[in-house]
Specification:
Elements (H helix, E strand, L loop, with lengths): L7 H17 L16 E2 L5 H4 L15 E4 L15 E5 L4 E2 L14 H4 L3 E4 L20 E4 L4 H7 L6 H4 L3 H17 L8 H16 L3
Antiparallel strand pairs: 1-4, 2-3, 5-6
Helix pairs in contact: 6-7
Length: 213
């Protein structure tokens, strides 16, 4: 299914951080993008084994690998002498590594991802009804819910722990979400006014996923 993650809260904090940087000289939080040196940036193909274990994941078989283009031998004249250009070697395209649930380990993770009830991906495939079933759906992520119970998980062959195995109750889950939201506030990646909104989003997700047939 399409992603249920709403990242607008992070954008609001980014705007406030930008304003403070410009008007008060307060630098924004350090970048959290994936990095090669700590293993959080990895080739797309390395994720295949994780998503192959998750029922319904449909991990993409084709990944964008932009290539260097050679337009000709005289770049100083800015004349394209070779049209179409000759394709050179591919750039080293990398993505964020994921944990055993399939959730990304790098970047700024929202409370609903830090305290997950599903696998949230930055990609999803086109539906066969609209054609191009092996292609990525542009600007769309995906959500793959966890099973509600251990029995459901085992019946589906899903290695990801179920909701009942992860959380003692709905209240315990929401308490963990609130703590994760407060951590993001302390890191300046989210505004304090959005803590309760995060809990509201998480409660809706829990009620929907826990009540699924």
């Amino acid at each position: 299914m399409r992603s249920i993650v709403n990242y607008g809260r992070l954008l609001r904090a980014c705007l406030v951080n930008l304003d403070r940087w410009v008007t008060e000289g307060i630098e924004p939080p350090a970048s959290r993008h994936p990095r090669v040196e700590d293993g959080t940036a990895t080739p797309p193909d390395s994720l295949t084994k994780i998503f192959a274990r998750i029922p319904g994941a449909s991990f993409p078989r084709h990944h964008a690998r932009p290539r260097r283009l050679d337009f000709g031998p005289d770049p100083e004249l800015r004349v394209m002498t070779q049209v179409p250009p000759r394709e050179g070697p591919a750039f080293g395209s990398l993505v964020s590594a994921v944990d055993e649930d399939g959730n990304e380990v790098a970047g700024i993770t929202l409370p609903e991802v830090r305290v997950a009830v599903a696998t949230h991906t930055g990609w999803t495939l086109r539906h066969p009804d609209i054609g191009g079933a092996e292609q990525l759906l542009v600007f769309a992520g995906g959500t793959i819910p966890f099973a509600r119970t251990r029995r459901e998980r085992e019946a589906a062959g899903d290695p990801r722990p179920s909701l009942e195995e992860r959380y003692a109750s709905r209240e315990a889950y929401l308490a963990s979400v609130r703590r994760a939201a407060l951590d993001l506030v302390a890191e300046r990646h989210m505004l304090e006014e959005d803590v309760e909104l995060s809990v509201t989003f998480a409660a809706r997700a829990w009620d929907w996923l826990a009540g699924r047939a």
